[in-house]
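Figure 6 in text form: structure in, sequence out.
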C-alpha cells in the first residue's frame, strides 16, 4: 500500500511519469468504461459510413442547434430539433423504437449532450456524435445549407486526405 495515498497500487502523486502519479485502471475497469463510452457515443466517420451504406442506417440523426445554425449547414438527412423544442416536439417527430444520434456545433459545445439527456429522459435510445457538425465538415463529408449541398476538402489534421477512412 502506498503510504502517501493509502490506496494499493497508486504511485506517489508527485511522480513525474506523465500520468500525474495515477496508474491506468485495471483491464476489467477499462473494458467496462470504454465499452460504456461506445454505448453513449458515435464518431462522425462511423455515422457518415452508416448513412452512406443504405437508406435505413438503423438510427436517426438529430441536429440540436438553432434555425440559423441549421441553415448555415447540417448533416444531410438530419432532423432539426433544437434543444428548446425537445419537450414539445420529440415524441411527435421521433419513433422511440429507432435510436437517435444527436449533434451540435462541435467538441466545445454541450448542446448534443443536453439533447441526449432530454431524449433519454423521455424514453429514447440515444447516442451523441463526437465532434459535432464541426468535425463532420472538417472530415470532408457533404453537408446541406439553405443554398444546397456543399463539401469542403478534408482537414489533414482530422481525416486522411488520400484514404477512404482513417483505419480506426
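Output sequence:
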Amino acid at each position: 500500500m502506498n503510504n502517501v495515498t493509502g490506496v494499493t497500487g497508486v504511485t506517489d502523486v508527485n511522480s513525474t511519469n506523465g500520468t500525474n502519479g495515477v496508474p491506468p485502471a485495471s483491464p476489467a475497469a477499462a473494458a467496462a468504461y470504454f465499452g460504456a463510452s461506445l454505448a453513449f457515443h458515435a464518431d462522425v466517420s462511423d455515422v457518415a459510413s452508416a448513412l452512406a451504406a443504405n437508406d435505413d442506417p438503423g438510427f436517426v440523426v438529430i441536429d440540436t442547434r438553432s434555425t440559423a445554425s441549421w441553415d448555415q449547414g447540417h448533416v444531410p438527412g438530419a432532423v432539426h430539433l433544437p434543444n428548446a423544442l425537445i419537450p414539445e416536439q420529440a415524441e411527435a417527430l421521433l419513433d422511440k423504437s429507432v435510436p437517435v444520434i444527436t449533434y451540435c456545433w462541435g467538441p466545445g459545445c454541450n448542446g448534443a449532450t443536453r439533447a441526449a439527456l432530454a431524449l433519454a429522459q423521455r424514453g429514447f435510445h440515444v447516442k451523441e456524435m463526437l465532434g459535432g457538425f464541426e468535425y463532420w465538415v472538417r472530415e470532408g463529408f457533404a453537408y446541406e445549407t439553405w443554398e444546397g449541398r456543399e463539401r469542403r476538402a478534408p482537414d489533414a489534421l482530422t481525416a486522411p486526405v488520400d484514404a477512404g477512412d482513417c483505419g480506426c
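Caption detail: Strands lie at 41-43, 60-63, 79-80, 100-103, 126-130, 143-145, 148-150.
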